[in-house]
């Protein structure tokens, strides 16, 4: 089985790496170009998007070559395909938020129809204490799928950030799936990690192509679905903690963004420059350093998820505290840099 892990990762990397230049040419042909129209965009020149097509192909082809298609796998790939189709249209000509939300809910419904849902919650750091959702299982599952799908999309603001964070989260979930005896889920997740890695050489600063909504929404949707399939079904004790830790950076950043906008009386879906990566940039960190800092935080949270999956709760808590400290120091470094600048002025 370990040989299959390496194989699916390698195949996904090579397919994504090979097809990204083709996706770039296609993006130019259909007009899927990201033109910097406001100050939220970091890049200064028009850059093609829709690179997520290469990521999608890397995942689907590698999984199809290695794994037999069961009902749940078909549901994930079907929902992911619909997300990608929507992303293509959105990258060419932006769709309304309502349209994208409706499609995401539809895809979440597909997962539920094919047997993937959150049926119960474990109370973290307790033994066997569970909360069964009953009739609330469907809305909770839809909320999780739609929420995680959009969190990865919201952090896709710097070269290589979303692809790198998705890779780290996927590797963390793959490890947990392996530990709890879900090798098929681990293979699926390694395919996602491999496809994202294959895309990174073209996407890391300075980016030659963006993944666009085609890629960020697809990666978010697949990771959301796999976190249900791998963690919840493999070991109930991991159901609540592991997915939140593995996807910690986009989850926490999006949660803070929602709270910030609500406090300021602004629409929740209205974009702003208050995301963590924007704040680090404003302190003069630079794109590469900012991305590497967030990679480090994401990897630390993933390591904590790995410890927790091995029942090393104390180790998990220590690493989680370390990750929180890293985020706290990063945020305060921004405020310190701003204070120094204001004093100089």
How many beta-strand runs?
4
Measured by DSSP, the beta-strand proportion falls in under 5%
Rg, rounded, reads 19 Å
Approximate shape: globular
Please give the alpha-carbon distance between the first and last residues.
Answer: 61 Å
Oligomer: single chain
Describe the protein's architecture and organization.
With 345 residues, this protein is an all-alpha fold. Helix content is 72%, strand content 3%. It has helices at residues 2-30, 52-66, 71-92, 97-113, 137-154, 161-179, 183-203, 212-234, 241-246, 248-263, 276-282, 287-309, 313-344, and strands at 33-34, 47-48, 120-122, 130-132. Strands 1-2 form a two-stranded antiparallel ribbon. Strands 3-4 form a two-stranded antiparallel sheet. A hairpin with a 7-residue loop joins strand 3 and strand 4 (130-132).
Tags for this model:
single chain, 345 residues, mainly alpha, two-stranded antiparallel ribbon, 13 helices, 4 strands
Task: Please describe the topology of this protein.
Elements: H1 2-30, E1 33-34, E2 47-48, H2 52-66, H3 71-92, H4 97-113, E3 120-122, E4 130-132, H5 137-154, H6 161-179, H7 183-203, H8 212-234, H9 241-246, H10 248-263, H11 276-282, H12 287-309, H13 313-344
Antiparallel strand pairs: 1-2, 3-4
Helix pairs in contact: 1-2, 1-7, 2-3, 2-7, 2-8, 3-4, 3-8, 4-5, 5-8, 5-10, 6-7, 6-8, 6-12, 7-8, 11-13, 12-13
